[in-house]
Design a protein that fits this description.
This protein is mainly α. About 60% of the residues lie in helices and about 0% in strands. The model has no long low-confidence stretch (mean pLDDT about 80).
Length: about 70
């Protein structure tokens, strides 16, 4: 398993502030993947935890949305 998905997902904060924090963390990860500077180990741990939480939240939302269809 990857470093992101090998541990349990922390509780996800779906408040506006929590979503903004996750968006910032996701932006940092994308910058790293695009060749940016590797963050400090403590920051990497925070980013991994944030991505695990976001992944869990999105998986739950996808499961809850199964069977729902968008109306044209």
């Amino acid at each position: 398993m990857s470093g992101i998905s090998s541990r349990p997902a922390p509780a996800f904060d779906s408040s506006a502030e929590g979503l903004r924090a996750s968006a910032r963390d996701l932006g940092e990860v994308l910058a790293l993947l695009a060749g940016g500077v590797r963050p400090a180990p403590a920051d990497m741990a925070r980013l991994f935890a944030s991505l695990r939480g976001l992944r869990g939240f999105l998986a739950t939302e996808a499961e809850a949305g199964e069977g729902r269809h968008a109306h044209p």
